[in-house]
């Protein structure tokens, strides 16, 4: 079992109940250890507090269940197989268990590595290590970058500022992908906002933030147990995609885990290419369905739940869920024009030429200049220039110029 699982903490379960169960006190049963439940209205069904918003439930099962399970079904979502949750049931009881395998999970086991260099040597080829290090160095050279891990201490003012930026970055990211993101559901987002702050102060959660000067451009919400760091939600400003902020974030979090003697960096559920590149272990999430085998009602309900969850997973395996998210996004945003950021361009080196007269400076930080700013980022990346030293200009014919400390170019947009 996981020591100090944050999803079983009093703060997490009480705040979850306030948001999703009318503030009712969670229910405990004397044959389950650590885990609490809420009652599903109209059915003899009890579901773990936190439901599907946790990143991993674990529990203990006492050797001799009493009669508290009679005529009942207990559903426990999102049990990672590597948690080694106790699930052996004595033959003398009518309590039985069904399992439904769900999402794949990905993690990095770090216990065998003394430092970040050892991990990189064992995971990536020489050329891949070179590229990853280049991304990070180039990123830090081109911008005024600072990294901050808020864990144990954060002012409410800073928290509110970061969380608002967090939401803006997520919205921007999924508008670009044209996919519905459940985290941005208003009720779900309010829960994350309310639960993260007290858990950070209790050292059960953290916010890892990448700042470009004072602006958050990357945010990751993590949860903490004694030995596991759970990556819950992560996002970065897509305008900086050229600089591979996703890889930079993962490298910094691995360094943090190793410094703090955290044994597992858990990417949690769901398949993404980046998880397969960085992970050295995979596992499955399971839904555990306990039921009273002596009750026809309980047995029928448990079997129906298993068939339902197995069917949902088959749809996920066929990628139906992503198609559904794209469809729901289009329904909700059918009156909204999606603004593409792809701009065909060519840079013409004019470093040895004088600048034309009558140029007007352009403020790249203004929202209306986003497309030009992204071209400027491309210029920074290619020429190892720094954004704080970059100047952008335009002339009367709307021709643009980027002037760095080492190079200047004329920008042709085609």
Describe the structure.
By secondary structure, the chain is an alpha+beta fold. Helices cover 35% and strands 26% of the residues. It has ten helices and 17 strands. The protein has helices at 10-20, 116-123, 126-142, 156-177, 186-201, 245-259, 273-278, 296-317, 320-332, 370-383, and strands spanning 32-33, 37-40, 45-48, 60-61, 73-80, 95-109, 145-150, 205-212, 215-224, 228-236, 264-269, 281-292, 345-349, 360-361, 391-394, 400-403, 408-413. Strands 2-3-5-12-6-11-10-9-8-7 form a ten-stranded mixed β-sheet, sandwiched between helices. Helix 1 (10-20) runs antiparallel to helix 5. It starts with 9 loop residues before the first helix and ends with a strand.
Topology of this protein?
Layout: H1 10-20, E1 32-33, E2 37-40, E3 45-48, E4 60-61, E5 73-80, E6 95-109, H2 116-123, H3 126-142, E7 145-150, H4 156-177, H5 186-201, E8 205-212, E9 215-224, E10 228-236, H6 245-259, E11 264-269, H7 273-278, E12 281-292, H8 296-317, H9 320-332, E13 345-349, E14 360-361, H10 370-383, E15 391-394, E16 400-403, E17 408-413
Parallel strand pairs: 3-5, 10-11
Antiparallel strand pairs: 1-4, 2-3, 5-12, 6-11, 6-12, 7-8, 8-9, 9-10, 13-17, 14-15, 15-16, 16-17
Oligomeric state: single chain
Helix tally equals 10
% residues in beta strands: 25-35%
Derived structural class = alpha+beta
Helix content: 25-40%
Low-confidence runs of at least 5 consecutive residues: 335-340
Distance between termini?
Answer: 59 Å
Largest sheet composition = 10 strands, mixed
Keywords:
single chain; 414 residues; alpha+beta; ten-stranded mixed β-sheet; five-stranded antiparallel β-sheet; 26% strand
């Amino acid at each position: 079992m996981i020591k100090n699982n944050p999803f079983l903490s009093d703060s997490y379960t009480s705040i979850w109940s306030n948001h999703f169960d009318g503030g009712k006190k969670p229910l405990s049963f004397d044959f389950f250890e650590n885990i609490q439940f809420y009652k599903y209205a109209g059915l003899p069904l009890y579901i773990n507090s936190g439901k599907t918003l946790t990143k991993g439930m674990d529990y203990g099962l006492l050797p001799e269940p009493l009669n508290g399970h009679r005529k009942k079904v207990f559903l426990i979502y999102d049990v990672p197989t590597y948690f080694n949750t106790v699930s052996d049931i004595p033959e003398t009881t009518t309590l039985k268990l069904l399992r439904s395998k769900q999402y794949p999970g990905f993690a990095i086991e770090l216990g065998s590595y003394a430092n970040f260099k050892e991990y990189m040597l064992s995971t990536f080829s020489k050329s891949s290590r070179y590229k990853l290090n280049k991304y990070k160095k180039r990123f830090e050279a081109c911008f005024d970058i600072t990294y901050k891990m808020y864990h144990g201490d954060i002012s409410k003012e800073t928290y509110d500022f970061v969380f608002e930026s967090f939401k803006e970055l997520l919205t921007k990211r999924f508008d670009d992908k044209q996919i519905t993101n459940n985290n941005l559901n208003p009720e779900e987002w309010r829960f994350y906002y309310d639960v993260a702050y007290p858990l950070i102060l209790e050292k059960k959660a953290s916010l890892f933030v990448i700042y470009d000067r004072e602006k958050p451009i990357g945010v990751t919400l993590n949860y903490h147990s004694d030995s596991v760091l759970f990556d819950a939600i992560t996002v970065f400003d897509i305008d900086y995609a050229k600089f591979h902020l996703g890889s930079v974030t993962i490298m910094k979090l691995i360094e943090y885990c190793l410094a703090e003697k955290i044994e597992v960096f858990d990417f949690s559920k769901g398949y993404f290419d980046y998880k397969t590149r960085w992970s050295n272990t995979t596992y499955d999430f399971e839904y555990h369905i306990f039921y009273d085998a002596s009750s026809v009602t309980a047995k029928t309900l448990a079997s129906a739940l298993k068939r339902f969850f197995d069917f949902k997973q088959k749809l996920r395996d066929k990628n139906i869920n992503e198609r559904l998210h794209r469809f729901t996004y289009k329904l909700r945003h059918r009156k909204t024009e999606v603004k593409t950021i792809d701009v065909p361009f060519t840079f013409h080196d004019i470093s040895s030429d004088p600048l034309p007269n009558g140029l007007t400076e352009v403020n790249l930080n203004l929202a209306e200049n986003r497309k030009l700013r992204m071209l400027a980022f491309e210029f920074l990346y290619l020429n190892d220039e720094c954004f704080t030293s970059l100047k952008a200009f335009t002339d009367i014919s709307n021709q643009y110029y980027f002037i760095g400390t080492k190079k200047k170019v004329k920008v042709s947009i085609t």
